[in-house]
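[job 4471] stage=fold_predict status=RUNNING
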Amino acid sequence: MRKTQPLKQIKTKRAGKRERELKVLLALVDLFISTGKPIGSSTLKNSEFRDLSSATIRNYFAHLEQAGFLKQLHSSGGRIPTEEAYCFYADHNKDSLIISSEDEKMLQELRSIESREVGRYLQDAAEFLSRATGTAVFLSAPRFDHDFVADLRLVRIDYNRCLCVIVTHFGLVETELLTTNRGLPEGILPELEKYFAWRLTGLNEPEDLEENVQTLGQELYNEIMVRYLVGYSNFSDEDIFRTGFSELLKYPEFNEAVSLATGLSLFENPQSMRLLLRDCMTNNHLRYWIGSELGTFASSNPNCAAITIPYRIRQNAVGAIGILGPMRMPYVRLFGILRVFTEYVSETLTKNVFRHRIDYRQPEKGSLYLGESEEKMVADAPKLLGK
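[job 4471] inference complete, writing structure tokens
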């Protein structure tokens, strides 16, 4: 996130003129964000500066264009902000606490949720934020301990492969691709799911299971549990959740395949997401990257912007949430929404973690963590494997 040096490059003779140029720049960016159309001197005059002549505003435009803050697509058209202008606008408004009563009322919904499913709560909150802001959302989360597998569902792919959907007690969802040489004939998956349910709960042991179904069920169940145990215990990178990429299709900036692809290359790269969110947690406050500033995290310079902010449990930053959208984002509104959003999410997480006595941990390279439930699973391994 660069520190722009706006208007230092603009040579002015009086402080008053400098301040007016600053106001003209901020007003133009504000108006362009809301309309998406090039801004002419007459439009800006009628909107904000009735005390200035169109000629004076055009003169300011020329200075700002020379300094690299504005550009003109056509010689007879209005001006649009450059990347530098967006950075200056964001820097100027970065401490904004402005939030409309409508947005704050909408966010109040996040405070009323009481649930042990803290992982599910974070995912639901991310989807809520995506709809509220019209942006793609990504978040990092700690690992919540004492979670366990609550349900297993199977989706048939072909005769030898199926997808297993793992649902945990905390509401997290994972998938594993399973293969078997025994084959998966039509109608066998419901029987296997009944077998899994019995193994998970000890209730409703299925009757009259054919021997081949029971043998296959035991093999697949053991495979699923071992994979889950290894993945759960080896926590070296933050869990990443992403949602709302389709929201970007609403913006004209992403109508072109190239622009959409560069944004997608960033959003679909978990490691890039982790780096952005880690930077936010390291700095422990709201951060933003605009245009080429994201080039460090993407294969090319994306024509988009990202804003991240940490959330907390007991005042300690445990994860971060970010939004991705075009450079033409309503930064003032989004800064306000994100600050209130993380305040409410942090409050709700802290309350539910304490109420339900849930432990959590941060990722650690080269670590293998075994809590009580995992130790019991290891101890029961011979039984799981039918030995």
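[job 4471] summary: The first strand starts at residue 70 and ends at 72.
[job 4471] exit 0
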